[in-house]
Amino acid sequence: MRVLVVEDDPSIARALVSGLGRHGFEPTLVTTGAAAVDQAADHDLVVLDLGLPDLDGTEVCRRIRATSEVPIIVASARSEEIDRVVLLESGADDYVVKPFGLRELVARIRAVTRRGGTSAAPQPEVSTVGDLSIDERRRSVSVGGEEVRLTAREFDLLAYLARDPGTVARRSDILHDVWDPHWFGSAKTLDVHVASVRRKLGHPEWIEAVRGVGFRLVEHPVLGSGDPAEEAGPAGSDRP
Ligand code: CA
After folding, report:
1. Statement: the pTM of the whole predicted model exceeds 0.85
2. 59 CA → ligand 1 middle, Å
3. Strands of the sheet with 207-210, listed across from one edge
4. Theoretical Cys-Cys bridge with 217: which of 29, 121, 165, 230, CB 3.0 to 4.6 Å?
5. Residues of the domain holding 25
6. Is 143 strand, coil or helix?
């Protein structure tokens, strides 16, 4: 597996490249955000340092995401909640906080790429919910025939909900199954991803939040202009 390591600190870079090599990966090192954006699509995964000399890491994420669905794991020295949310919103699939061990990074890489459909597990066919179509083999999503571009994690979240449309999935189950059994990150991560999927699908009504429980994919949503259906007003109040 070709891993693009984006790191400007020579000692961390050296340790990462040799460590990943020992674990059977094929690492390539670049030291700038510009080089990362250039080369990301030629790799199976990107490990991205946030503090780069030329571009902010979140900007690098966004630029990679503009052209590629390659999984991105951010290595960040920052640990504030707001940064995590910004990161995930900018398209990162996961992150590790420095200093991190190689074993932790490798576990994250395996988790992210397993979700990426590289496992040998049998893949279900296409599931269709209303005019939403989810092809788990091609990992593609379309609404009314229009392709919708999702990140790897967004796809997994939507596919998970689509396996049992109409049924509420509990937040803890989603985090366990779509993220990682050992996910200790912020619960906000889930909300951020739900918001992003809703936005990309064009209507928030597709995914209904069930307060205090979780989320469900609505089988036949009444699609509005972007706001929840409550403002649809009473029927029969039309002029005669
Ligand atoms: Ca750095």
Report:
1. no
2. 14
3. 169-170, 214-217, 207-210
4. 165
5. 2-116
6. strand
